[in-house]
Design goal:
The chain has about 220 residues and is an all-alpha fold. The protein has helices spanning about 10-40, 40-70, 75, 80-90, 95-120, 125-130, 140-150, 155-180, 185-190, 200-220, and strands spanning about 190, 195. The protein has a two-stranded antiparallel ribbon with strand order 1-2. A hairpin with a 2-residue loop joins strand 1 (about 190) and strand 2. The protein is globular and about 55 Å long. It starts with 7 loop residues before the first helix and ends with a helix.
Amino acid sequence: MENHVEDPEYRAGIIDLLGALGLGELSAFQRLAADAELAPTLADQAALAGMAAAEYRHFERIRDRLAELGVSVDEAMGPFREPYAVFHAKTAPSTWLEGLVKAYVGDQIGTDFYREIASAVDEDTRALVLEVMADAGHADFAVDRVRAAIEEDPSVAGRLALWGRRLVGEALAQAQRVAADRDALTSIIVGSAGRPGMDLAELGRVFARLTENHAKRMAKLGLAS
């Protein structure tokens, strides 16, 4: 698919994809750094700080790739600031545990969504997407801490399960909104003349897989989905 990189519509879609990803990585860095301050132990603070640093390195990789394409981070990421702000405003955690679940469950829905899109892009872009989507260590950390909290106080499981369901609803709505609002990004998903993409049936399966993966993560946390 290398020859499509020079196509203006495809290039715009790639810039949108990298812009959305880059803002997500920058946001993850900021939130993990903030969550580190709320962590109950110094060891937890250090672990989250390390994860935040890894997310920032992912952001730098995207920033550098955008620079190679001649695009600034403000130009590429700016269009996604409002949907991200709306999502985070609606899903602001009120406790340390809610923050852990949000970073593990909520963010991973977005990760799955962008991995699905990566199946339709050129090899270089796909490799970069998969690299920056790699787990920074948060999955095992979140599972360990949430399961320990439930074992100590089983009553927290119900509240966190409700929180997880709220997160999945908002995250899926955000993914659909972003895809619908950005024509260039949509063209990456559904294709265009000379470049096949997903049909409606496959798009339906994509969102079904997102929901299935969410249920698996909730189960891993010891929570009902």
